[in-house]
Design brief:
Low-confidence stretches: none
Strand content: 5-15%
Number of strands: 7
Shape: globular
Largest sheet: 7 strands, mixed
Order of helices and strands: EEHEHEHEHHHHHEHEHH
Structural class: alpha/beta
Radius of gyration: 18 Å
């Protein structure tokens, strides 16, 4: 099965970290923290297939989780990395946990990961995401551009994703709105999410963090994650929404540092 190569940005040096965004988003989701991370890590932030600048899977290839994980594994080889540390948000968080379950990465930091919803909350999440998608698709470009230049427009466009949408730079909000409008894999990915649930154990250092004001995957799902992943470290991100890199970039960065440090220490041979 031939899958397309991903567009990505890469910067910094040190242990490799791969950053995976959520459905409808793009690699720019990591802008609030990527430069800081690059001062001590080799950071790779791809656009997932069918989002941002990356081409979608061919029409006959379903957006199943196994296909997504296999695809990332081939990209690791292309990038010349073996068992990187991985950080993911929402869909990217679920993919990160699946990579960890297969032992393909050295550590996982999952921010509000998908896969821990119940039947009702799954439908609620998908409805909210489809609302965002339809508004983006139906809004003329000039309207989106004008809205993202105002504080009211930033709040309206970002209130489902962020607790503090006013912190989003106008150019980032416009980029994200255009990305959501023109992405080519949204519906195919969302349909596959209807049948998805994370049910594995993850045999690598893992942190699961949840924004307490998440409106897409509500904070109550953190309790389910604690039950299914008893060996992971579970952390609250107080006052943060679904995409916490905007709401509390310092805490997110700190959690990544702690997770990577723990994993690096665990695999460093102890002197006799």
């Amino acid at each position: 099965m031939l899958l397309p190569d991903l567009t990505y940005v890469r910067k910094g040096s040190g242990p490799t970290i791969v950053l995976l965004h959520g459905i409808g988003h793009n690699k720019g989701a990591w802008d609030p923290i990527i430069d800081d991370l690059a001062t001590r890590y080799d950071v790779i932030a791809p656009d997932l297939s069918g989002f941002g600048e990356s081409p979608a899977f061919a029409g006959g290839v379903p957006y199943t989780m196994p296909n997504a994980v296999d695809h990332l594994a081939t990209q690791f080889e292309r990038w010349g990395v073996t068992k990187p540390h991985v950080v993911g948000n929402s869909l990217g968080g679920a993919i990160s946990l699946e990579l960890g379950a297969r032992g393909l990465v050295s550590s996982v930091t999952a921010l509000s990961p998908a896969g821990f919803f119940g039947p009702i909350s799954k439908v609620q999440a998908l409805l909210a995401l489809f609302v965002l998608r339809f508004v983006a698709v139906l809004s003329p470009g000039f309207v989106v551009e004008r809205l993202t230049r105002t504080s009211l427009g930033l709040r309206l466009s970002g209130q489902l994703l962020y607790a503090h949408p006013e912190r989003i730079p106008a150019e980032a909000a416009l980029r994200d709105a255009r990305g959501l409008k023109y992405c080519t894999a949204f519906e195919r990915t969302a349909i596959q999410a209807l049948g998805y649930s994370f049910q594995h154990q993850v045999p690598v250092t893992t942190t699961v963090a949840w924004g307490t004001k998440d409106l897409i995957l509500p904070y109550s799902q953190a309790a389910t994650a604690r039950e299914r992943l008893p060996h992971a470290r579970h952390v609250d991100i107080p006052g943060a929404g679904h995409v916490p890199m905007i709401d509390d970039p310092q805490l997110v960065t700190r959690l990544i540092d702690q997770t990577v440090a723990e994993a690096e220490e665990a695999r460093t041979p102890t002197a006799a």
